Amino acid sequence: MIMVKKKKSIKTYTGTEIGIILEDIKSDFRVFGEALAGVKEGVAVLKEDVAVLKTDVSILKSDMKEVKTDIKEIRGILKEKADKKDVVRLEARVTVLEK
How confident is the model at residue 30, as a pLDDT? Predict the structure, then answer.
């Protein structure tokens, strides 16, 4: 059995139809371009925001280093001080010795 291939029919378009199709494509590209411009504006704003945030984080890092240094210093001072229990005990001993 021999199979015969059918030729595909090729659709032809008139100049007007091609013009309409091209106009539709141009319109789609215009819409896409406008949307892309909006995205570019949004990205520009985000870049500015990120720059501000980077500056803020840098400042916070610096401040945190200072706070850590201060805390270490305060801890050292507190280690040298007597506890309230120790003071009460010493007061009691002094009272006994003064009698």
Answer: 95
